[in-house]
Specification:
heterodimer, A: mainly beta, five-stranded mixed sheet, four-stranded antiparallel sheet, 0% helix, B: mainly beta, seven-stranded mixed sheet, 11 strands, 53% strand
């Protein structure tokens, strides 16, 4: 499986956009990029995923570079409740890789 | 609320004992995944079942086993427990197998081994 690299922590002011980067330089053509977050010790929460194109939903936007070696998760208007650990995961199509490697993630601190 | 339920929420037991953790997937989801999260290891994938059959294995110890029943609920059995097995255990479900399907996680079971 392709590995991901994320900064260990980031700060963001409440109401501003939070841009969380992820490097996945060894990603292969059939691997998806997923983002999850975990608030305190709760179960991880699905945010968004994509393959090649940029994606947007009610929670966030996912920008994937053209060469697919990196991506950015954008929370357009961060709130204090968005403080969490954010995981960027790369996942392949084959059943043998039908599992998630969560890595260490980025701890996002949203400050008033 | 993801729709995935796990019981019990907390479990305290002694070394050498055996426990069973239960997971009910979201309605209609055929695939169930188990994960372990300990302080020093992060979130580790253990095992996946799809429609009653084992589909993928991760870092699951031989002392641990799982199964998925005809009603699609799953149980994770942990035996000969050691102090190091203390962790949060999460179950997740998805509609099908395959990389394009997001997983929805339950609230977890916190296991403490004394």
């Amino acid at each position: 499986d392709a590995k991901t690299t994320q900064p260990p922590s980031m700060d963001c002011a409440e109401g501003r956009a939070a841009n969380l980067p992820c490097n996945h330089s060894t990603i292969s053509g059939n691997e998806y990029v997923y983002w999850y977050r975990q608030i305190h010790s709760q179960g991880p929460q699905y945010i968004i995923h994509g393959l090649k194109n940029n994606e947007t939903n009610e929670m966030a936007s996912l920008i994937i570079t053209e060469d697919r070696k990196s991506s950015t998760l954008i929370l357009p208007h961060a709130t204090l409740r968005d403080t969490a650990v954010y995981y960027c995961i790369v996942r392949g199509l084959m059943d043998n890789f039908n599992k998630f490697y969560f890595g260490s993630g980025t701890k996002l601190n949203v400050k008033p | 609320d993801s729709g995935v339920t796990q019981t019990p929420k907390h479990l305290i037991t002694a070394t050498g004992q055996r426990v069973t953790l239960r997971c009910s997937p979201r309605s209609g989801d055929l695939s169930v995944y188990w994960y372990q999260q300990s302080l020093d290891q992060g979130l580790q994938f253990l095992i996946q079942y799809y429609n009653g059959e084992e589909r993928a294995k991760g870092n699951i110890l031989e002392r641990f086993s799982a199964q998925q029943f005809p009603d699609l609920h799953s149980e994770l059995n942990l035996s000969s427990l050691e102090l190091g097995d203390s962790a949060l255990y999460f179950c997740a479900s998805s509609p099908r197998t395959g990389a394009g399907n997001e997983q929805f996680f339950g609230p977890g079971t916190r296991l403490t081994v004394l």
